[in-house]
TrEMBL record:
SUPFAM superfamilies: P-loop containing nucleoside triphosphate hydrolases. GO terms for cellular component: membrane. Residues 1-103 are annotated as: Disordered. Pfam families: ABC2_membrane (PF01061), ABC_tran (PF00005). It comes from Brassica carinata (Ethiopian mustard). Residues 72-91 have a biased composition (Polar residues). PROSITE patterns: ABC_TRANSPORTER_2. Belongs to the ABC transporter superfamily. ABCG family. Eye pigment precursor importer (TC 3.A.1.204) subfamily. GO terms for molecular function: ABC-type transporter activity; ATP binding; ATP hydrolysis activity. This is ABC transporter domain-containing protein. Residues 114-356 form the ABC transporter domain. Its main location: membrane. The chain crosses the membrane at residues 461-482, 494-515, 535-558, 570-593, 599-620, 690-711. InterPro entries: AAA+_ATPase (IPR003593), ABC2_TM (IPR013525), ABC_transporter-like_ATP-bd (IPR003439), P-loop_NTPase (IPR027417), Plant_ABCG (IPR052215).
Length: 730
C-alpha cells in the first residue's frame, strides 16, 4: 500500500493525472507485475482516437491460416499485452508491427467509443418523474479499456449502465446525450452485449451446448461458422476446462460454481462479437479468487479491442489495479471520473487520503456510503487503540458534498469535458446491425433444445411420468373388475372422472419447469435472442412428445385395467382425448405461471382452479341441476374437465346396449343419463375434442399477448425491481 501512496504522490504536482501521462511510473504492487521494459504510453484524456484507425491490423509470426475477426485471433497477435502486462492505469496504444512476420493479416475485435454528456435519469415515483436516479453524469469509454461504475447500493450504478445501453424500464425517463463513435444513433442489434446481474442458465446443458444453442438463436449463417464462434467465446472466457461439463441447477446438484456460471453468461453475449459489452455486477456473489479470475479474464477480453463498461460494488486491491477508468457515484451524483490512480489523488485533495493498510475501493465506499453513519451512531462511544472508530472524521453527507465540489472545480472534470468534445466533434464509423437467425430457425432450435432438456430433467419430466403411472395403477386397481353390466355404469363414470381430474391435478408438478422456461425466455428476449411467438411455438412443439408419452402410457394402463370397451378406434380416441386434456392443462399452467412467475402463488392458484373445475364438471351434481348464475355459466363451460369427461363417456357408452331383464334393453345414452349429462349425437365426442383443442390454443394465445405486450416490454423493469428488492433484503 506504500506504493499506492507513492503513486498518488506523483499526482500532487497537478490536480489531474490526465494532464501528464508521461510522468507516471508503472505500478508494481498489483498482483500482476509488468515485465522489465514493458513501459508504454497509456491513453490519457488528451488522446483523441483516430477514426480511420478503428480497425487495427497487424502481422504476426505464425504458420496459421488467413486472418479473421475471431476472438482467438486477437489472443495470438502481439496487439495486446499478456496477462503479466495488464497492470496499468489505462490500455496502451498498439505496439509497432513486428518485422519478419509470416504476412498473415488479422483484425482485432472492432471496439467502439462511447461517451455521455449531462446524462440524467428520473424514475416514476410519487410525483411524475420526480426522483432523479442519475444526475448530470459525464464520461466516456475507449476500445480496449475497462471502465467501471462504482458506488454504494442504490447509488444509480445499474441505472446509468442501462441508460448507456438503451435498456431503461418504461418507468424511467432519460435526459442528456449518449454518443457511440461520435454519433447519437441508437446501437443496432448485435453491436453491443448486455449481461444482467442474475442471468438464467439451463442447468441440464453443458457449457458448449448452451453457447451453441445461443449462437443458433442469435446468428445467421452456417453451422460450422457458429461452432467456431462458440469455441472462440469459450477460449475468451477461459472456459475450456468446463466446456463439456453440465452447468448444473435444480436437478443436477453438482455443476459449475458461481464464477464459472458468471463467465458462461458473459460468453453467451460474446458469440455476437459485440463492439461494446455492458455487464451489471460481474463480481456478483463471487469470492475473492473467482473475482480476480473474472477480472483478469475481462482484462484479456478488453485487450483484444472490446469496449467494456460494467458496474461494481466493491473490489479487492488486486482487482482495483486492473481497472482503467472509474466513475464514482453516490446518490446519483458523479464524485469522480477518470483513471483509477487519479481517484486516490482526488480523495487526497479533498481531504480524505487513503490509509496505508486499506484497499482503495474500501476507502472510497467508506467515505461516500451513508449507511456507515448509522454504524457510527451505534458505536459512537466505542474507541479502539488508535482513537477514532472511523478513518473518515466527517459526516458522510459532508464528505459527499466536499468530494463533488472538489471534482467539479478540478482539472479532471475539465479534461473529461474536453475529451467528450473531441469524441463528439466528428462522427466516426456507424455501427451496423448484424443479421438475425430466421424465425423458422429459432423455432426449430428452441424445439430441439426443449426436447434435449426434457430428456435430461428427470426431476421435472421423468419423475412426472413415474407419478402418472403410479396414479394410474392406483386408480386401475381400485376400479378393476367392474364388468359391463348396467349396474357398473355409475362406478365407471366415477373412474373416468377420478382419472381425468387427478391426472390434471398432478400436472401441477410441472410448474417449476415452466417458470424456469419463462425466466429463460425473459433473459433471451431482453437481448432480442428470442420472441414471444417463437418461444411459444418452440415450447409447444417440444412438449408434444413428452405429453403424448404420458397420455398413451397412462391411458393404456387405465383402459385395460378398468376394462373399457375392447375396440381399437375407441382406445385411440381415449388416448387422443386424454392427450388434449394434458395439452390444455399445460397451457393453463403456462398462463398462470406467466401471470405470477412464482412457484407458491402459481401452485396455489392452480390447485384452487382445479378444485373449482372438478366441482363444476358435472359428476357431483349433474350439469343441468347446477345453479345457473355461477356454476353453469361460466364455470361448467370453461372447465376442460367437463369436455374431456363428457367426450370419454360418449366414446364409451354411445352405441352400447344394455339388457334389462330378458326382453327389454336400453341404449348406453339412457343408461348413463341419470349419472352424467352427455349428448345423444354420435359426433358430439369430436366436438368436445375440438373444444379441447381450441382451449389449448386459446390459453397459449393469451400467454402470447401477455409476453408480447406485457412481459416482453417490462422484463427489464421487473428484473431491475427484483434486483432492488434483493439488495434491500441484503
Amino acid at each position: 500500500m506504500e506504493e499506492i501512496q507513492s503513486q498518488s504522490d506523483l499526482y500532487r504536482s497537478s490536480s489531474s493525472c490526465a494532464s501528464s501521462p508521461t510522468s507516471r511510473v508503472p505500478s508494481s504492487h498489483f498482483f500482476y507485475v509488468r515485465k522489465p521494459g514493458s513501459l508504454r504510453q497509456p491513453i490519457s484524456f488528451e488522446d483523441s482516437p483516430e477514426w480511420d484507425e478503428a480497425d487495427v491490423r497487424t502481422e504476426y509470426e505464425a504458420g496459421g491460416g488467413g486472418g479473421g475477426d475471431s476472438i482467438n485471433d486477437a489472443t495470438a497477435t502481439p496487439i495486446s499485452p499478456s496477462l503479466s502486462k495488464i497492470n496499468s492505469g489505462s490500455m496502451a496504444s498498439p505496439p509497432p508491427v513486428p518485422e519478419g512476420g509470416a504476412g498473415n493479416v488479422v483484425r482485432k475485435i472492432a471496439g467502439a467509443s462511447i461517451a455521455w454528456r449531462d446524462l440524467t435519469v428520473t424514475m416514476n415515483g410519487k410525483r411524475r418523474y420526480s426522483d432523479k436516479v442519475v444526475k448530470s453524469s459525464n464520461g466516456y469509454a475507449f476500445p480496449g479499456t475497462m471502465t467501471v461504475i462504482m458506488g454504494p447500493a442504490k447509488s444509480g450504478k445499474s441505472t446509468l449502465l442501462r441508460a448507456l445501453a438503451g435498456r431503461l424500464p418504461p418507468s424511467a425517463k432519460m435526459y442528456g446525450e449518449v454518443f457511440v463513435n461520435g454519433s447519437k444513433s441508437h446501437m443496432p442489434y448485435g453491436s453491443y452485449g448486455y449481461v444482467e446481474r442474475e442471468t438464467e442458465l439451463i442447468g441440464s446443458l453443458t457449457v458448449r451446448e448452451f453457447l451453441y444453442y445461443s449462437a443458433l438463436l442469435q446468428l445467421p449463417g452456417f453451422l460450422f461458422q457458429k461452432r467456431s464462434v462458440v469455441e472462440d467465446a469459450i477460449q475468451a472466457m477461459s472456459l475450456s476446462d468446463y466446456a463439456n461439463k453440465l452447468i448444473g441447477g435444480h436437478c443436477y446438484m453438482k455443476g459449475l460454481r458461481s464464477g464459472e456460471r458468471r463467465r458462461v453468461s458473459i460468453a453467451r453475449e460474446l458469440v455476437m462479437r459485440p463492439h461494446i459489452l455492458f455487464i451489471d455486477e460481474p463480481l456478483y456473489h463471487l469470492d475473492s479468487v473467482s473475482a480476480l479470475l473474472m477480472m483478469v479474464t475481462l482484462k484479456k477480453l478488453a485487450s483484444m479491442g472490446c469496449t467494456l463498461v460494467f458496474t461494481i460494488y466493491q473490489s479487492s486491491t488486486e482487482v482495483f489495479g486492473l481497472f482503467d477508468r472509474i466513475c464514482l457515484l453516490s446518490n446519483g451524483n458523479t464524485l469522480f471520473f477518470g483513471e483509477t490512480l487519479a481517484c486516490l489523488q482526488h480523495f487526497s485533495n479533498a481531504g480524505f487520503p487513503c490509509p496505508i493498510m486499506q484497499s482503495p475501493s474500501d476507502h472510497f465506499l467508506r467515505a461516500i456510503n451513508t449507511d456507515f453513519d448509522r454504524i457510527i451512531a451505534m458505536c459512537k462511544n466505542w474507541q479502539d487503540d488508535n482513537g477514532d472508530f472511523s478513518a473518515v472524521n466527517m459526516d458522510t453527507a459532508v464528505a459527499i458534498r466536499t468530494l463533488e465540489a472538489t471534482y467539479k472545480s478540478s482539472e479532471d472534470a475539465a479534461s473529461v469535458e474536453t475529451m467528450i468534445f473531441k469524441l463528439t466533434e466528428r462522427e466516426g464509423t456507424q455501427l451496423k446491425s448484424k443479421g438475425k437467425a430466421g424465425a423458422a430457425t429459432r423455432v426449430a432450435v428452441l424445439t430441439w433444445r426443449s426436447l434435449l432438456v426434457m430428456s435430461r430433467e428427470w426431476k421435472y419430466y421423468w419423475l412426472r411420468l413415474i407419478l402418472y403411472m403410479i396414479l394410474t395403477l392406483c386408480i386401475g386397481t381400485l376400479y378393476s373388475g367392474l364388468g359391463h353390466s348396467l349396474s357398473s355404469v355409475a362406478t365407471r363414470v366415477s373412474a373416468v372422472f377420478v382419472f381425468v381430474s387427478f391426472a390434471s391435478l398432478l400436472g401441477i408438478a410441472g410448474i417449476p419447469s415452466l417458470l424456469k422456461e419463462i425466466k429463460i425466455y425473459g433473459s433471451e428476449a431482453s437481448n432480442q435472442h428470442s420472441g414471444a411467438l417463437v418461444f411459444l411455438l418452440g415450447q409447444f412443439l417440444g412438449s408434444i412428445p413428452f405429453l403424448f408419452l404420458m397420455s398413451i402410457s397412462s391411458s393404456l394402463v387405465f383402459y385395460f385395467m378398468v376394462g373399457l370397451r375392447d375396440d381399437f378406434s375407441l382406445l385411440m380416441y381415449f388416448v387422443l382425448n386424454f392427450f388434449m386434456c394434458l395439452l390444455v392443462n399445460e397451457g393453463l399452467m403456462l398462463f398462470i405461471a406467466c401471470i405470477w412467475r412464482d412457484v407458491y402463488w402459481s401452485t396455489l392458484t392452480l390447485i384452487s382452479l382445479h378444485v373449482i373445475m372438478m366441482l363444476a364438471a358435472g359428476h357431483f351434481r349433474i350439469r343441468n341441476a347446477l345453479p345457473k348464475p355461477i356454476w353453469t355459466y361460466p364455470l361448467a363451460y370453461i372447465s376442460f374437465h367437463t369436455y374431456s369427461i363428457e367426450g370419454l363417456l360418449e366414446n364409451e357408452y354411445l352405441g352400447e346396449v344394455f339388457a334389462v331383464g330378458e326382453v327389454r334393453s336400453i341404449s348406453g345414452y339412457e343408461a348413463i343419463r341419470g349419472n352424467y349429462q352427455i349428448s345423444p349425437d354420435t359426433s358430439s365426442k369430436w366436438r368436445n375434442m375440438l373444444v379441447l383443442l381450441a382451449m389449448a390454443f386459446g390459453y397459449r394465445l393469451i400467454v402470447y399477448v401477455l409476453l408480447r405486450f406485457g412481459l416482453n416490454k417490462n422484463v427489464s423493469g421487473r428484473l431491475l425491481l427484483c434486483h432492488r428488492k434483493n439488495n434491500s433484503s441484503r
